[in-house]
């Protein structure tokens, strides 16, 4: 049997790609993989132990916290706090940034959604953890501050996700390709299963919560009609696939090609998904895989974050499909402006 690399072996073999001190990345990612294994174990027991359902409290965004949200948040926080390299974290489940006082000399901050899609967990649908890593802006030795976290996505030094699906996978990039590792629970190791992942320039899947159709901008409606219309030369109609769990929808489209949209709507002008710990890490990965991520006007990675829990419209996936949506949005906006002027 040829030798299959473990996550740890792969990181060591590729650490020359990480621009800073050797060993730092290895420590950061091993904290994430350790926490992921603990969350994997708990998710696989869900239904048998009392871990399903709400805690009874809400997070800062007014959403019901699930017991597994809370559990995953604690596990990931503890794993981060135990590493000398991490001086602070921000999480979907925490109102404010958390400063690790004992690690003021560390270089990195981590932003995370510890358990994305958790409203799906009670019905046994795949969920995920999303993470994003930056070098701090403030001097080492001081307490971390909000500016360490409000950095444009282009400045991420690494990003990735864990998908707890029919198998558990960890997918990450440090800006040198996207690599996927599948967890073997019998051995307790992640093994390289998807080296150098790339996404097709054009796919045949569109993923969107179409229940909100009436509230979407005209350009999005136009694109959905395009996806649904018949044209053999472009293999349309495309297939609609929407799990309602970002990591799962993204992972499928990354592998086979497609587009995921969570646009603005009348009810939610900024969409639903959070820039810092949902959109930016996914945008970093998709660009590394040859795809695109946009808010409809510009690349997600170029946005300047203003707020820790800021939301932003997300259009992400195969490059040609995302460009097409941008064109339709621009066209309909120009048309609207033109009509306003005439009025
Ligand atoms: P969460 O962070 O509260 O779990 O919400 C994010 C999830 C994403 O995983 C998914 O893409 C989206 O919410 C689905 O939203 P909707 O139910 O409005 O389609
Ligand atoms: Mg989330």
From TrEMBL:
<dbReference type="GO" id="GO:0042132">
    <property type="term" value="F:fructose 1,6-bisphosphate 1-phosphatase activity"/>
</dbReference>
<keyword id="KW-0119">Carbohydrate metabolism</keyword>
<dbReference type="InterPro" id="IPR044015">
    <property type="entry name" value="FBPase_C_dom"/>
</dbReference>
<feature type="binding site">
    <location>
        <position position="242"/>
    </location>
    <ligand>
        <name>substrate</name>
    </ligand>
</feature>
<dbReference type="InterPro" id="IPR000146">
    <property type="entry name" value="FBPase_class-1"/>
</dbReference>
<comment type="pathway">
    <text>Carbohydrate biosynthesis; Calvin cycle.</text>
</comment>
<feature type="binding site">
    <location>
        <position position="113"/>
    </location>
    <ligand>
        <name>Mg(2+) 2</name>
    </ligand>
</feature>
<keyword id="KW-0460">Magnesium</keyword>
<comment type="similarity">
    <text>Belongs to the FBPase class 1 family.</text>
</comment>
<feature type="binding site">
    <location>
        <position position="116"/>
    </location>
    <ligand>
        <name>Mg(2+) 2</name>
    </ligand>
</feature>
<feature type="binding site">
    <location>
        <position position="278"/>
    </location>
    <ligand>
        <name>Mg(2+) 2</name>
    </ligand>
</feature>
<dbReference type="InterPro" id="IPR033391">
    <property type="entry name" value="FBPase_N"/>
</dbReference>
<keyword id="KW-0378">Hydrolase</keyword>
<keyword id="KW-0479">Metal-binding</keyword>
<feature type="binding site">
    <location>
        <position position="209"/>
    </location>
    <ligand>
        <name>substrate</name>
    </ligand>
</feature>
<protein>
    <recommendedName>
        <fullName>Fructose-1,6-bisphosphatase class 1</fullName>
        <ecNumber>3.1.3.11</ecNumber>
    </recommendedName>
</protein>
<dbReference type="InterPro" id="IPR028343">
    <property type="entry name" value="FBPtase"/>
</dbReference>
<feature type="binding site">
    <location>
        <position position="115"/>
    </location>
    <ligand>
        <name>Mg(2+) 1</name>
    </ligand>
</feature>
<comment type="subunit">
    <text>Homotetramer.</text>
</comment>
<feature type="domain" description="Fructose-1-6-bisphosphatase class I N-terminal">
    <location>
        <begin position="6"/>
        <end position="194"/>
    </location>
</feature>
<dbReference type="InterPro" id="IPR020548">
    <property type="entry name" value="Fructose_bisphosphatase_AS"/>
</dbReference>
<feature type="binding site">
    <location>
        <position position="92"/>
    </location>
    <ligand>
        <name>Mg(2+) 1</name>
    </ligand>
</feature>
<keyword id="KW-0963">Cytoplasm</keyword>
<dbReference type="Pfam" id="PF00316">
    <property type="entry name" value="FBPase"/>
</dbReference>
<dbReference type="Pfam" id="PF18913">
    <property type="entry name" value="FBPase_C"/>
</dbReference>
<feature type="binding site">
    <location>
        <begin position="116"/>
        <end position="119"/>
    </location>
    <ligand>
        <name>substrate</name>
    </ligand>
</feature>
<feature type="domain" description="Fructose-1-6-bisphosphatase class 1 C-terminal">
    <location>
        <begin position="200"/>
        <end position="329"/>
    </location>
</feature>
<feature type="binding site">
    <location>
        <position position="272"/>
    </location>
    <ligand>
        <name>substrate</name>
    </ligand>
</feature>
<feature type="binding site">
    <location>
        <position position="113"/>
    </location>
    <ligand>
        <name>Mg(2+) 1</name>
    </ligand>
</feature>
